[in-house]
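Q: Structure tokens for this one, please.
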Amino acid sequence: VQLAESGGGLVQPGGSLKLSCVTSGRTFSSFDVGWFRRAPGKEREFVAAARWRDGSRSYADSVKGRVTLFRDNAETTVSLQMSSLKPEDTAVYYCAAAISLQFPRFDLSQPERYDYWGQGTRVTVSS
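A: Here is the predicted structure, written as tokens:
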């Protein structure tokens, strides 16, 4: 499974961006998916995730209400719609995929849960 993110760029505070993650090799069917980000000088942090088995979503408190994760019906693209962006949202954003498990060892908010990662797309929020 190979993941490729796109959609990053420079946006003004208060603006919106839609990040996309496309898979090649196989579809996202049977995979849980997540988005993480790494801001300059900071650790990688969880942003959002979607569980394949029940379709549930989870979001970090820092983005809740401003970010929505979508999975397309063809299961080839996962998107992250972001709005009301703030300078502190500036980071490289990564999508990740994890084989769906009934009893996973790690939570979807933990990077250890994921088996595949993209190369990242940079988002800069600045006026």
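A few notes: The longest strand covers residues 91-99. The CA atoms of residues 50 and 57 lie 4 Å apart.
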